[in-house]
Design goal:
Layout (H helix, E strand, L loop, with lengths): L1 H14 L4 H8 L3 H8 L6 H12 L6 H27 L4 H15 L8 E4 L2 H15 L6 E8 L6 H12 L10 E3 L16 E6 L3 H17 L2
Parallel strand pairs: 2-3
Antiparallel strand pairs: 1-4, 2-4
Helix pairs in contact: 1-2, 2-3, 6-7, 6-9
C-alpha cells in the first residue's frame, strides 16, 4: 500500500516535469525504481528544456526564490533600522526641539522675506515647523498666513489641495490666502497625481523681530563649530 502511494506521487511529480533524480529523493526510493515507475510518461518539449537548463545552470528556477528571500531579508533589515532610529530619538526636550527647528530654518526657511516663513511640499515638515513655532516662540496657528502654490495644470483641483493641507494641519480653509499658480510647463510627471498636493507657504504674522533673532541663532550654531 505504501509503495502504491509512493508510486502515485512519483508519477504525479514526473507529469509536472520533475527529473527522475529529484523524484527519487522526494519519494525516497532508488533512482532505478523511480525510473521504472515513470518510464511510460512522456515529457513535453518545454519540460525537457527546463530539465536541460537545470542540468547546465544550477541556479535555474532558483533565482526568483533567492531574490524574494533576499528582498524579504532586506525589508526586515530596513524595518529594524527604522525602529532602532525611532527608539534612539525618544522624547525630545524643549531645547532639542528648538535646535532642530533652527537647523530646519537654516536649510529651508525664508531668508529674504520680512516675516518668518517656510515653503514645503512635505506634510511632516509643515507639521514640525508649526509645532516648533508654537513650542519655541508661542506662535499659534491663528497667527499664521498659509498659501498653497501649485502648477497651473492643477488649477481645477486647487480646492482639493487646500482641503488636504487644512485637514492634515487642522487649520480652517478660510485661513488660507488665495492660491498661487506656476505657469511654467512641468517636466516632472507624478506616477500617481494624487500624491501631489502642491507646495504650502507658511508665514508668521508680525514676526520681523523674531526673524532677526533666528538669523542670530543660525549664526550662533555656525560659530559653535568653528
Amino acid at each position: 500500500m505504501a509503495k502504491s502511494k509512493e508510486k502515485l506521487k512519483a508519477r504525479k511529480l514526473r507529469r509536472k516535469g520533475e527529473s527522475i533524480k529529484k523524484i527519487s529523493k522526494l519519494v525516497k526510493v532508488s533512482v532505478s525504481t523511480a525510473s521504472l515507475w515513470c518510464r511510460d510518461i512522456e515529457l513535453t518539449n518545454s519540460q525537457i528544456e527546463n530539465l536541460r537548463k537545470r542540468q547546465t545552470d544550477p541556479f535555474y528556477g532558483k533565482r526568483l526564490d533567492y531574490y524574494l528571500k533576499k528582498k524579504k531579508e532586506f525589508n526586515l533589515k530596513l524595518l529594524n533600522l527604522k525602529n532602532e532610529g525611532i527608539s534612539s530619538i525618544g522624547k525630545l526636550t524643549k531645547r532639542e526641539i528648538f535646535i532642530i527647528g533652527i537647523a530646519l530654518y537654516w536649510g529651508e526657511g525664508f531668508k529674504k522675506d520680512s516675516l518668518v516663513g517656510l515653503a514645503t511640499l512635505d506634510i511632516n515638515i509643515a507639521k514640525f515647523f508649526i509645532f516648533w513655532l508654537n513650542k519655541s516662540f508661542g506662535i499659534t496657528t491663528k497667527d499664521l498666513i498659509l498659501r498653497v502654490t501649485a502648477n497651473i495644470s492643477y488649477k481645477s483641483k486647487i480646492n482639493e489641495l487646500g482641503k488636504y493641507w487644512s485637514r492634515e494641519l487642522k487649520i480652517p480653509v478660510n485661513q488660507f490666502s488665495k492660491p498661487f499658480f506656476q505657469n511654467a510647463k512641468w517636466k516632472k510627471e507624478y506616477e500617481n497625481k494624487n500624491d501631489y498636493h502642491g507646495v504650502l507657504r507658511i508665514r508668521a504674522r508680525r514676526s520681523i523681530d523674531l526673524l532677526r533673532k533666528i538669523f542670530g541663532y543660525i549664526e550662533g550654531i555656525s560659530l559653535s563649530v568653528k
